[in-house]
Specification:
The complex is a heterodimer of chains A (451) and B (201). Chain A is mainly β and 451 residues long. Helices cover 9% and strands 49% of the residues of chain A. Chain A has helices spanning 2-18, 27-33, 37-40, 49-56, 205-209, and strands at residues 41-43, 46-47, 69-80, 84-85, 88-89, 98-111, 114-128, 134-153, 156-165, 214-223, 227-236, 255-256, 261-272, 275-289, 300-314, 318-333, 353-367, 371-382, 396-408, 411-422, 442-450. In chain A, the strands form three sheets. Chain A has a 16-stranded antiparallel β-barrel with strand order 3-6-7-8-9-10-11-13-14-15-16-17-18-19-20-21. Chain A has a two-stranded antiparallel ribbon with strand order 1-2. Chain A has a two-stranded antiparallel ribbon with strand order 4-5. The longest helix of chain A is centred in the first third of the chain and has 17 residues, at 2-18. Chain B has 201 residues and is mostly helical. Chain B is built from ten helices and no strands. In chain B, 38% of the residues are buried. Chain A binds chain B through residues 33-36, 38-39, 49-50, 53, 61-63, 112-113, 147-152, 156-157, 161-162, 217, 219, 225, 233, 259-260, 271-274, 314-316, and chain B through 2-3, 6-7, 10-11, 14, 17-21, 31-33, 36-37, 45-48, 78-80, 82-84, 86-87, 159.
Chain lengths: 451, 201
């Protein structure tokens, strides 16, 4: 472990030496606006009120750059509480520093009324070979392309625009909806188990289930910095939209039917003094073909209805923020419902109707925009279904504690502890044998930087 | 097909209703840009940012140009205002200046510490003769309302005033020659007192 730490320190200092003193967030945005990352970000990617306006205005503030590109990278070392149980391994690179992931961005203004945030990611730790080595993989990541303009309605400013994206809620400007809620940096190494399950398997569709597989087009407005509304429609990112899902493991992913799966968003925002508050609701309804290669016949319908809230205290030197969201998902299985052949984890649903409920919350404190601490909680509960869920229940529960140091706004060193008290419906013996959920608790020391 | 219709409809709407940022009135730039931080009409309640309402036009213009040519360079000027000001033309700046001069400043009127307030009032009105600190009101006006190239101080956030007075110890606002001399005679408790007094005006 000491040796590992030494290596990581060396790596970190190398990065610091190479990175400039000036600070950038998605650095091409900073180059375009001439502003510091801190204008738009509390700490990347959490947005300030100014950052929200910048995004809703279509990333158009400033001078269009000839080459609006930026890069970011993440290195880390992961330690799992119990790397193996009864001879079954649950992690491949215990205490072994890894170059985890790297992204390139095309991010900036295109015209006075249009701009884009397009992320391409090279995942160095994407999958596992049978011999335990990593498979790297590159793919389209978050995409948000928009056109926006301003007008006046009852004497107040109105921002309105159109948006094209590939992940429901990636277009959102509060850090509460799934695409931008905490955690921001996670261990990719811990995400790949060579043996049994080592992390929760079940989540709602809107919570990452459709990311980079769908294309959504919609319109939005933001009136008087108070009322935000949006309606978008999603379909599979195929044919003309295929670039939005390049690199997705296409044949194994479920496919959503039609191009009219709605996503909605309504929020009330209130800024006063050093405070910024939002309360809102969002959700979507999708019809899904459970087998990607079979796009005929019945579909399963998922209806996600979510509520979210955010509070930020933005001052100097103290910055404090809280975010929370609750997602209720109604599942109606027309395609996967099969009471005759549903068995332990068969994939066929034993019930025609199920539900999932997810709660996520986090609180952060940042001093001098340098020293940060975060506490987060997550849980999912749902219907009993012995066909869909290996232990009959989808429940999971855990927490994250993080300390971070941000020498500049484009560099972060974080020590993150993720603890699980329930995985896939159980704690002790969740794997069907003797492993405990908490055996998968991980310490993740990582450095992240952007230029 | 549906997408294409939606997209073209949107494009047409945008084209019809869009008005360029440049060559718009001060009120419009305020409402779309400045007010995000400085509050509508330059009346922010956030002490991180100064109130702009009621600032004399020449002072406002001089500061915006100092941000734009990077001669005013304290940390927040660099972080925020260098970028913003680089997007504004001379005409934009003049229209903004004229707009803000006409706005009524927010009354923050709160006295949290009476002895401190009294000390601040005394320095503001009489100066500190033994330390060669002239009365602030000699230049900034009886109520700190400012004029010409001298800023309005009355009703400004105490936190902002303190930050700026401390900036004058360095050389990040070279245009404020007089202030570099004035602050030499002020202790940090004097600065606190003056800021308290002025915020309450």
């Amino acid at each position: 472990m000491i040796k590992t730490l030494k290596r990581l320190l060396l790596l970190t200092s190398a990065i610091f030496t190479l990175s400039p003193i000036t600070s950038f967030a998605v650095p091409s945005f900073a180059r375009q606006t001439g502003m510091d990352c801190a204008a738009c970000h509390i700490s990347f990617p959490e947005l300030t009120p100014f950052g929200r306006e910048f995004k809703l205005n279509g990333y158009t503030l400033g001078e269009a750059q000839a080459l609006p590109v930026a890069v970011m990278a993440q290195f880390g070392v992961t330690n799992m509480n119990k790397p193996s149980t009864d001879g079954t391994p649950y992690i491949t690179k215990q205490n072994d520093p890894q170059f985890e992931t790297m992204s390139a961005f095309f991010a900036g203004k295109i015209t006075d009324y249009a701009g884009a945030f397009v992320q391409w990611t090279y995942d160095n730790v994407s999958d596992l070979r049978s011999n335990g080595s990593f498979i790297s993989h590159s793919h389209t990541d978050q995409v948000d392309i928009r056109m926006a303009s301003n007008s006046e309605v009852v004497g107040k400013n109105l921002i309105y625009g159109l948006d094209l994206n590939n992940n429901p809620s990636v277009q959102d400007v509060w850090n509460t909806a799934p695409a931008w809620i905490y955690p921001f940096n996670v261990s990719h190494v811990a995400g790949l188990s060579p043996g049994g399950v080592n992390k929760p398997s079940y989540a709602t569709q809107i919570d990452g289930g459709l990311a980079q597989q769908v294309a959504g087009v919609g319109g939005y407005f933001y009136w008087d910095r108070h009322l935000y509304g949006e309606l978008s429609f999603y379909g599979s990112a195929d044919k003309v939209f295929r670039p939005l899902s390049y690199g997705d493991w296409y044949t194994s992913s479920p496919v959503i039917a039609g191009r009219d799966n709605p996503y909605w968003r309504l929020a009330w925002n209130q800024d006063w003094g050093s405070n910024s508050f939002m309360i809102g609701t969002y959700g979507m309804q999708v019809n899904i073909f459970p087998v990607a290669t079979n796009r005929n016949g019945p579909t399963d319908r998922f209806t996600d209805i979510a509520f979210d809230t955010q509070y930020q205290f933005l001052s100097d030197p103290h910055v404090f923020s809280v975010q929370a969201t609750y997602i209720h998902e109604k599942q109606h299985y027309d395609a996967s419902f099969d009471p005759t052949s549903c068995g332990s984890g068969s994939g066929a649903s034993c019930n025609q109707d199920n539900h999932l409920d997810t709660l996520k919350a986090k609180a952060s404190y940042l001093f001098n925009r340098k020293y940060g601490a975060t506490l987060a909680y997550f849980q999912t509960t749902g219907s009993t279904d012995t066909g869909l869920y290996i232990n009959g229940k989808p429940d999971n529960r855990g927490y994250i504690a993080e300390l971070n140091y941000n020498p500049w706004t484009n560099v972060r060193v974080a020590l993150q502890y993720t603890g699980y008290t329930k995985i896939d419906g159980a704690n002790i013996g969740y794997d069907g044998n003797t492993r405990k959920a908490s055996d998968n608790n991980t310490i993740f020391l990582n450095t992240w930087f952007a230029y | 097909m549906k997408y294409r219709i939606l997209l073209s409809l949107g494009l047409i709407t945008l084209a019809l209703t869009s008005t360029a940022f440049a060559a718009t009135s001060g009120a419009k730039i305020d409402s779309q840009l400045c007010s995000i931080c400085h509050g509508r009409g330059g009346t922010t309640t956030n002490e991180l940012f100064p109130q702009l309402a009621g600032q004399p036009m020449p002072y406002f213009i001089a500061q915006m140009k100092a941000f734009r040519n990077k001669s005013r360079s304290e940390e927040n000027a660099k972080r925020f205002m260098w970028g913003i000001s680089s997007r504004l033309s001379d005409q934009d700046i003049e229209e903004l200046a004229s707009f803000y001069q006409k706005q009524i400043p927010l009354s923050l009127g709160k006295i949290s510490n009476q002895p401190q307030y009294d000390l601040g009032k005394n320095i503001f009105t009489n100066g500190l003769l033994d330390k060669a600190v002239p009365p602030c009101m000699a230049c900034h006006g009886e109520k700190g309302e400012g004029s010409e190239l001298t800023p309005r101080l009355g009703g400004q956030h105490a936190a902002y005033l303190k930050r700026q007075l401390n900036v004058f110890y360095g050389n990040e606002r070279p245009a404020a020659l007089a202030m570099h001399e004035v602050v030499k005679g002020l202790s940090s408790s004097d600065i606190d007192a003056i800021a308290q007094y002025l915020q309450a005006q």
